[in-house]
Here is the input.
Amino acid sequence: MSPPLLPPPPRLRLCRSRRCGLLLLLLLRLRLRAAAKDEGGKSEKRRATPFRPGDLVDGRYRVEAVLGRGALGVTFAVRDEAAAGAAGGEGPELALKATRLRGRGAGGWKAFDLAEREAAALRSLSGHPNIPRFERFFDVDRPDDRVRCLVQQRVRGGGPLSAVVASGQRASPAEVARMARDVLRALSHLASRSPPVTHRDVKPENVVLEGGRWGGGKAFLVDFSGVAAAALAASEGGGGGGGGGSSAASSSPGTTVIGTFGFMAPVGFFFVCLGVSERV
Here is the structure.
C-alpha cells in the first residue's frame, strides 16, 4: 500500500504592508550606503570652503565665521560694510550661503539651480516674523570657479534647537509651547501660499532660537533647500519623497528622496507603493 500523498505546501504571499516594509528597509539600506560613501568626502568638503574669515565678498560683505555646512554649500556669518558706511556703526549682521560650481566639494550646475530656487522660495516667503528676511542673491566670478551667494537675515545670537537641547538646557512647558507656536505660524504661512509650499525638512537643526537659548526670543524656521529640491524634482518629472540628510535630495528611478531620517513623515517612504502624496 503506497503512502498517502502529502498536500503541496501553501504558496507564500507577502501582504501589501509587508511589501511596503521591505521597500522601506531597502530605502534605508540604500541611504545608509550613500551616507557612508559621503562620509569619506566630508573632510574634503570641509577644506573646500569658498571664503575665509576676513574676506570681503562682492565688495561689501565681511566674512566673520562659518555658521554651518549643508548639502548645497557653506553658510557664513557676515556684516554688511556698505550699510555700515551709510548709516555708521558696524553694519547689520547677516548670513551668506555660498554654493560653489566647480572644485572640491562643489555640487555643479544642479546645486546652482537648487540655490537659485531656494533664493526664489525665500524671496517669496520673506516678510514673515518667523522666517529669515531675504536680502540679496548674486554670483561671484573667479578665474577657475563661480560662487552663488544667498544673503539673508541672521537670527540675533541665534542657535539651532538641536544645539540648545544638546547643551542640557531645560525649558518650561510655556517656553516649549511658544517655540512650537512660532514654528506653526511659519508653516501656516507656507501653506497659505498659492500654490502651497512644503518645507520638507522641519527638524531641530532647522529651528533657530533667538539668543541661542530657551526664552531668548522668537523661533525661526530656516533652510528652504528642501523646497528647492522638490521644485526641481517636479520639473524633472520625479516624485517627492522622504529620506536624506542635511536637507539633501537624492534621486533614484521614479522617486526623489528629500528630508532627514527620523524627522520626516512615514508616509514619505510609503507613497512609492501606496500612491499617497507626501503632502498629506
About this structure: The helical segments are 16-40, 42-47, 81-87, 108-125, 161-166, 173-191, 225-235, 267-274.
